[in-house]
Amino acid sequence: MSEEITELTEAELPANVKALWLKAQSAFELKNYTYAISLCHAVLKSEPGFYDARKLARNAAASENSGKKKKKGLFGGSGLSLMKIPAMGKKDPVGAMAALETELVKAPFDGQANDLLFDCALRLNLLNTAAFALETVRRGSPENTKLLHKLAEHYLARDMPDEASAVYNDIVKQDAADMDAVKGAKDATARASMKKQKWEEAQSFRDVLKSSDESAEQENANRAAMTRDQMMEKLETLSAAYAGDNQNLSLVKDIASLYEQLEDWPNAYSFFQYAYDLSDKDVALQSKAAYMKDKAAEFQISELKKGVEADPENEELRQQYEAVMAERTGEQVEEAQQRVDRNPTDPQLRYELGLALYNSGDYSAAIPHLQQATRNPHIRTRVLLLLGRTFKAKDMHDLAIKQLSDALADLVGMDGTKKEVLYEKGLIHEDMGDKEAALNSFKQIYEVDYGYRDVAQRVEQSYSS
Length: 465
Fold this sequence. Notes:
Helices cover about 75% and strands about 0% of the residues. It is mainly α.
């Protein structure tokens, strides 16, 4: 078996494995569940990434155990074998998954075993398999809300907000007092709405309208492909109407959309924010307003930067640019802190706060948030890279190397992330005066990507000298 495991479909199965899979399905249909499970295990031994076999094995186990008295522990309480699996999973996740399949025969919905399967699957980047493990808990042990929270976070990390929202709603059904789940459901629903309606990439009035009547009205206007002058004329008409009725939500949204079309970000932010205030706290409008606020800040900073580059001797302009940058960085920290305060258990939000603090130069404050963010396996490598840079900024080079080494341990193929980690590690070794270790990092990149940054120059100069 190759070291790299990938998830595959039935059509991608090798012929000999597909024959076993067809027999497993036939055995399940004949209600020969024990035989179906053994065949599924044989399929998984050859193709651990074929998660349909895990589904069938779990369904067979559930059918076989239906009506039987639920055991407190796996195999009548023999938790010792299960206790060995976490350590095994770090060294041999494929072997650990095979061991877990055996354990799950008698207790298919066991939370601990499925959680371990989730972790092993993530180590192999088998994302659908990981989701299936916790979906099994959701199906058979929905009262285990801790693992359901983990499943929702997994979906959010994969940009699957609809699925996350459904999981959060299931948690609320089990525990109506779980405010993290209530908040999570609302946020995930808003995120799904933004994704579907492409809020962040809105290019027409239709993209920011919700009712079919409003959409139809704006569609007629768009058919004419309004020029900038026509948009300004329409804006003047809407502004006159707004002067007579500034509580009309639909009108305020139309004006906000026009300003967005005109790329007048400050006014777009102002009107989207007012639309949010007029609405019944529509989170989609809140997100839209936040996006416009960011665009306005980016535009202001971009214009000031151009001015400084065009007139580098203008000290007043430079100070203004630096002040705006400092203000924006402070706002990003404040906004990130507020998000963490609302949901302190979310590792993604911890990472965003750590990043904002790093950008502000407050490295010591960034560290604890980044350390907590390493709990999310989907962003762990990115977090460790930033932690390494943070320790480097504090001249704590040995700790920086440790973070980057941990990140490399999680990476297999030489992708862009691994190159970035190796390059950063090489620079830190150089700062420490360890030229041999630095060159070793650069050489690893050089062997697969000659054109990456300046590694070719660094490596080749080492030979000439």
